[in-house]
Design brief:
It is a single chain. This protein is an alpha/beta fold and 212 residues long. It has a single domain, classed as 3-Layer(aba) Sandwich (Rossmann fold). The protein has six helices and seven strands. A seven-stranded mixed beta sheet has the order 3-2-1-4-5-7-6, sandwiched between helices.
Length: 212
């Protein structure tokens, strides 16, 4: 019989502050470090359930902003007036149907883990690339992206995929990520101008102080 994981300080804090999950503090730290979310912004939240990132984003963009949250599963928490939630596959949606483009695209999507580290990492990589492809279609020029990925053999491929579409890429591991976890967050800042051909490659630069 498996033992339930003991709730840590982030889990207890989330419960006190009315968030469905401790993951909210990962986004909060990312937001604080890169100044991601501002009042009036339009945000697309991929893999939104159970809703912590959605609720945090809705608070930051305020009543003049909008958050569109998508997930394959229903959201069971209450949502504020500036949030719309849809049960759907984001890959099948168009910019027009989503009401984009968006200032920020968020993805906390993760695969159901199989217990084999390399397989879990690869499935996370595939989900991350899906999120990047959606962001490439829906983020406005100058916009931003945050995506979760399990660090593995394909990590550099994931970072390069993001660099094709964003001027600056940072790698962050928020304090709320569990010590034993190998999840990281790739942040793309400054969505590039969309050209008729392939998006231009990023100019190599010195590693950011937050890169790992």
């Amino acid at each position: 019989m498996s033992r339930r994981r003991e709730q840590d300080r982030f889990g207890k804090q989330a419960r006190r502050e009315g968030f469905p999950a401790r993951s909210v503090y990962k986004l909060e730290e990312i937001d604080r470090r890169v100044q991601l979310l501002k009042p009036g912004m339009k945000v697309l939240d991929l893999g939104a359930a159970p809703g912590s990132w959605t609720l945090y984003a809705s608070q930051k963009v305020g009543p003049r902003g909008r958050v569109l949250a998508l997930d394959l599963h229903a959201l069971h928490s209450e949502i504020p007036p500036n949030v719309e939630f849809r049960v759907c596959d984001a890959r099948e949606q168009t910019v027009e149907s989503l009401g984009g483009p968006f200032d920020v695209v968020l993805s906390d999507m993760a695969p159901k883990t199989m217990g084999t580290r390399s397989a879990d990492q690869y499935r996370s990589f595939e989900l991350f690339l899906t999120a990047v492809e959606i962001a490439a279609r829906t983020a406005k020029v100058g916009g931003a992206f945050v995506g979760k990925i399990f660090q593995g053999a394909e990590f550099e491929q994931a970072r390069e995929a993001l660099r094709k579409h964003f001027v600056k890429v940072r790698v962050l591991k928020p304090e709320a990520v569990r010590e034993e976890s190998y999840e990281l967050f790739l942040v793309g800042l400054g969505r590039r101008e969309v050209s008729l051909g392939e998006a231009p490659a990023a100019t190599p630069s010195a590693p950011d102080a937050d890169d790992t």
